[in-house]
Amino acid sequence: MEKGIVIKSTGSRYRVLFGDNKVIDSYIRGKLRIRESRTTNPVAVGDNVLFEIDRKTGSGIITEVLDRRNYILRKSSNLSKHSQIIAANVDQAILMITIVLPETPVEFIDRFLISAEAYRIPAIILINKTDLYGSGEIEKMDYLETMYRKIGYKTLSLSLKRSDDLKPLVMLLKDKVSLISGYSGVGKTTLLNTINPGLNLKTEEISDYHKQGKHITTFPEMHLMPFGGYVIDTPGIRGFGVVDMDRNEIYHFFREIFRVSKDCRFNNCLHLDEPGCAVRKSVETGEIDFLRYRSYLNIMETDNRKYR
Ligand SMILES: Nc1nc2c(ncn2[C@@H]2O[C@H](COP(=O)(O)OP(=O)(O)O)[C@@H](O)[C@H]2O)c(=O)[nH]1
Ligand SMILES: [Mg+2]
Ligand SMILES: [Zn+2]
């Protein structure tokens, strides 16, 4: 029996990293004890597994998935009750954003942050392509960084074109399992290639941007970093949805809104137009940023469960 970590899953085949940097293609034989019956994939990237080596074929046979510290889901489809585990045992969720080419909307950032909050996974905002920014973009970036830092989020800005910017990034990733997410075209693959010269992953060209709305079957993949740690790339996954987030608890995941909500007159206040709402008052005084409150309202308005 060997112990390893799943670095790639393509539905029925799994690539497992074990021992001294060895990789083995594996599959499940027979029945594996399944813990989450509502997920479509019993084994996910980041899972720690026990396996045997089939002497005849040289393949691995996964016999057990060890307990997960956490996991991130997405719904398999709008109609389905089933969800897919994107990754397991994640230390931090990094959202890569850009102010231009493409512009990442604040609401998208906030959806990511509340999901991470619900999964209790620390979220970090990584702002890329600063080499392209003029004074207008820098002003916008500074505004967002100030806003999110005040709430308590870590932010880091960089250009992957500047080698001096890589050091803080490496420090951030070192010895951790990091999931990296973000719009198509922000530079996720470039990041992996830059800090991992041997990797040579295919980057996206502008012409690929229009594909992002379509359903492409891509699988998350975990990469071992030369300085220690792993990064999980999530191609084609624009955001992850929180399954079973109730409408009346969405504000719990907006940290600063939740803090202030304790002062609302009614304890079932949803901070929409209730009298004595401390949240609305804080938005008026600027204590809570209107951009965040607007994200909250938009998320409350749309069916959150449909979002993936
Ligand atoms: N100017 C500039 N371009 C970048 C930077 N990082 C990535 N790119 C470019 O952005 C495009 C999309 O990058 P890619 O890594 O494929 O994005 P992904 O879709 O998030 O994986 C590529 O043409 C990259 O060369 C950066 O810091 N500055
Ligand atoms: Mg990519
Ligand atoms: Zn309120």
Structure write-up:
The protein contains seven helices and 13 strands. The two termini are 37 Å apart. 33% of the residues are buried. Helix 1 crosses helix 7. 24% of the residues lie in helices and 23% in strands. The strands form three sheets. It has a six-stranded mixed beta sheet, with helices on both faces. A five-stranded mixed barrel has the order 1-2-3-5-4. It is of the alpha/beta class. The protein folds into three domains: 2-70, OB fold (Dihydrolipoamide Acetyltransferase, E2P) (Beta Barrel), CATH 2.40.50.140; 90-233, P-loop containing nucleotide triphosphate hydrolases (Rossmann fold), CATH 3.40.50; 247-306, Probable gtpase engc, domain 3 (Ribonucleotide Reductase Protein R1, domain 1, Orthogonal Bundle), CATH 1.10.40. The structure holds guanosine-5'-diphosphate, magnesium ion (MG) and zinc ion. Zinc ion binds next to helix 6.
Topology pattern, helix = H, strand = E: EEEEEEEEHEHEHEHEEHHH
Could you tell me the number of beta strands? Answer: 13
CATH architecture of the largest domain: 3-Layer(aba) Sandwich
**Which word captures the global form?**
globular
Count of the domains: 3
CATH level 4 superfamily of the largest domain:
P-loop containing nucleotide triphosphate hydrolases
Oligomer: single chain
Please tell me how large the radius of gyration is.
21 Å
Q: Roughly how much helix do the residues carry, as a percent range? A: 10-25%
Strand content: 15-25%
Major β-sheet annotation: 6 strands, mixed
> Uncertain runs with pLDDT below 50, 5 residues or more?
206-216
Name the bound molecules.
guanosine-5'-diphosphate, magnesium ion, zinc ion
- The N- and C-terminal alpha carbons lie at a distance of 37 Å
Strand order of the largest sheet: 10-9-8-11-13-12
| Nearest-integer average pLDDT | 88
Number of helices: 7
Question: In CATH's first tier, which class of the largest domain applies?
Answer: Alpha Beta
State the CATH topology of the largest domain. Rossmann fold
Coarse structural class: alpha/beta
